[in-house]
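Record type: ASSEMBLY
Status: queued
Input:
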Amino acid sequence: MYDLEFIVGHLHYWLFIVLMMTGFYIVVSRGNLVKKIVGLNIFQTSVFMFYISMGKVDGGTAPIFPVDMKIDPATVYSNPVPHVLILTAIVVGVATTALGLALIVRIREDFGTIEEEEILKIKRKITAEENRDHGAGMGGSA
Amino acid sequence: MEAFITYTLFAMLVATALAAVQLNRLFAVVMLSGVFSLLSAVLFVVLDAPDVAFTEAAVGAGISTVLMLGTLALTSRTEKSSSRSSAIPLLVVIVTGIVLVYGTLDMPNFGSANTPANTHIAAQFIEKTPHQIDVPNIVTAILASYRGYDTLGEVVVVFTAGIGVLLLIGRLGRRGERQKQIGRGE
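Status: finished
Output:
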């Protein structure tokens, strides 16, 4: 079953998965928030390419008819449905990227940094101070 | 020839992504993200999707990069080197990749015509668009007519994201914060 034809036929999918995982690695291994967004973008674009590759037909052409609409029945067209889905997904992807970047700007205003580790450190300090204050108010040490 | 172009583009895409992993200067990383989007737009043309290629080049490579550069101007330009180990993320990524590759084993070969994805509804769209919609571009016909409500939903999503950005960093959100500060001061 796993002969050369199978491997050549699936190589595209596997290469897209390699690209996806590179983006995923940036997201999980780097602490910088802007870099995380870049990784997310790389992951997202790889998924788009994976989807479009599923609609590709060998010997096919782009799903656009001649302008005079005289359609040759022998012409093979690639699948237009993934194209429509991904057109929508690209625009939605930019909207979510913009929202993520706005969150980063707000985080920078409040914490003065966009490094995940430093944000967590500051957050822990604030929590410890609050615990101490509230603990003293309740008449004991928290 | 087509396969040669595809694999060359793959090599360039992988090189771009790996360079984005390595670099510390965020300006270079953001630019590489734009390069990645442009290369993927070229790949979309090879995969018979010129409409997607246009959108990716304009929106993915253009607007995204501009937004990220704006964020860099408001925050910082370099990434601080992280102290945590990269072994666990690497393990997670490799395991996820193996699971995904296992998932593709049941998929039909790349480019085959009679797959489930290419036969059911897609064949009907290609067959009926000339009579029902009479627009040369099938993608336009589906996007604006057959699935017009989906596109309306997309507009709602973009509108919601716009309101979210305005509330987070626009004047609208700031005003509430200032009132709160004034109230606290009194």
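Annotation: The mean pLDDT of chain A is 88.
Annotation: The two ends of chain A are 64 Å apart (CA to CA).
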